[in-house]
Amino acid sequence: MKTFFGFLCFVLLSQGVGGLLHELTGGRFSIWSLVARLDAFDGYEIYVSVILVVAGLAMGAAADAAGRGAVLSSGDQEGKRR
Length: 82
Prior knowledge:
Layout: H1 2-24, H2 45-72
Helix pairs in contact: 1-2
């Protein structure tokens, strides 16, 4: 589960940062950004990119929590140290 959340974090962050770079540099990073290619987000690319970055950070926090939760639920006494 941690690996899936980590991968999702990477995808969301890369698309969000790519979208922001695409908008702020005038289209130089067009290969990175899926948001710029979709007509549904026309005019809202920066907002959608910021939302993707925030969602990516949330997924990163969830991946970290999932990793710690797996250690705590394993019953290992060393994993319960804080």
